[in-house]
């Protein structure tokens, strides 16, 4: 793993909400810390209501994690474009985040520990 990336299991119950809708809840969250960036909570894909997510064409590349794919969140009250990312085939050094999703947080998207 890159020296500046740390992945650890995050205890407790974590939830992600958008536009008032609960998109997911998990007791299997991972926290990825990367350098000076704020830590990011990754949710197992199996704990997310994928019906709220629409795959987009956006991709990005991280030299430490690999290629990321994106989803928009679509619910009754809003659409949050490219608000979710995932590393479907992460580099071996961060293989733990495979099959996990992370969310850009803000006014309409909240990731919280219950």
What can you tell me about this protein's structure?
With 114 residues, the protein is mainly beta. It has a single domain (5-113), classed as Domain of unknown function (DUF427) (Metal Binding Protein, Guanine Nucleotide Exchange Factor, Chain A). 0% of the residues lie in helices and 54% in strands. The protein is built from no helices and ten strands. It has strands at 5-9, 14-18, 21-26, 30-34, 40-44, 53-62, 66-74, 79-86, 100-103, 109-113. The protein has a seven-stranded antiparallel sheet, with no helix packed on it. Strands 3-2-10 form a three-stranded antiparallel sheet, with no helix packed on it. A hairpin with a 2-residue loop joins β2 and β3 (21-26). The chain is globular. The mean pLDDT is 94.
Task: Map the helices and strands.
Layout: E1 5-9, E2 14-18, E3 21-26, E4 30-34, E5 40-44, E6 53-62, E7 66-74, E8 79-86, E9 100-103, E10 109-113
Antiparallel strand pairs: 1-4, 2-3, 2-10, 4-5, 5-9, 6-7, 7-8, 8-9
Given as residue ranges, the uncertain stretches (5+ residues, pLDDT < 50) are none
Total discrete domains: 1
SSE sequence, one letter per element: EEEEEEEEEE
The CATH class turns out to be: Mainly Beta
**β-strand amount:** over 45%
Helix content: under 10%
Based on helices, strands and strand pairing, what is the structural class? Answer: mainly beta
Sequence of strands across the biggest β-sheet: 1-4-5-9-8-7-6
The fourth-level CATH homologous superfamily is Domain of unknown function (DUF427)
Protein name: DUF427 domain-containing protein
Domain DUF427: 15-105
InterPro entries: DUF427, DUF427_sf
């Amino acid at each position: 793993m890159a020296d500046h990336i740390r992945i650890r299991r995050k205890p407790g119950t974590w939830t992600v909400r958008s536009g008032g809708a609960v998109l997911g809840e998990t007791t299997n969250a991972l926290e990825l810390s990367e350098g000076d960036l704020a830590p990011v909570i990754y949710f197992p894909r199996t704990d997310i209501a994928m019906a709220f997510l629409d795959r987009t064409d956006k991709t990005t590349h991280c030299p430490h994690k690999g290629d990321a794919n994106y989803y928009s969140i679509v619910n009754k009250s809003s659409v949050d474009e490219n608000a979710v990312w995932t590393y479907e085939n992460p580099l071996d050094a961060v293989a733990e985040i495979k099959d996990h999703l992370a969310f850009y947080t803000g006014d309409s998207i909240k990731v919280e520990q219950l």
